[in-house]
Amino acid sequence: MRHESTVVISASPGEVWAVLADVPGWPGWTPTVSSVAALDGELRVGHRFRVKQPGVAAAVWDVVEVEPGSSFSWATRFAGGRMVASHWIRPADSGSEVRLQIDYSGGLAPLLTPLVSGRIRRFVEAEAAALKRECESPTRNDR
User: Which InterPro entries does this entry report, sorted A to Z (predicted)?
Assistant: First the structure.
C-alpha cells in the first residue's frame, strides 16, 4: 500500500528542510503528530525517534536515509508489517516541491489495509498542508 501527497511551497528548499529536519518541532506545526522524542539526537541515519500520533500507539521510527537539504526516510515495524515514510524536497519555480510518501508492507498488509488506509491518507495530506502553512507563515522568520 502506498499513499503520497505533493505540495508546492513558496519557500526555498533550505527553509523547508529547516522545518522538516527539526523532527522534535513537528508537534508545533502539524496536527498529525502529538509528540516526538529524539532517542539518539539529530536527524541522521541510524538515529531513532519516538513519535506519538493522535489515535495511534506511539512508534519508534528508525532513520534509514538522509540527504541533507533534500530528503530523508525512516521506517517502523509493527505487528504484521513495516511502514516507510519518505520526504523529498526539490526546487520549483515558485519555491519548493515537497513529496511525502508512506509505504506499508508485510504479511498482514492486505488484511490491515482496509482498516488503516483512510487514516494514513488523511495524515499524509494533512502533514503536507501543515508543512506548507508553516513554511509560508509570515511569522516563520520571527521564531
Answer: Polyketide_cyclase/dehydratase, START-like_dom_sf
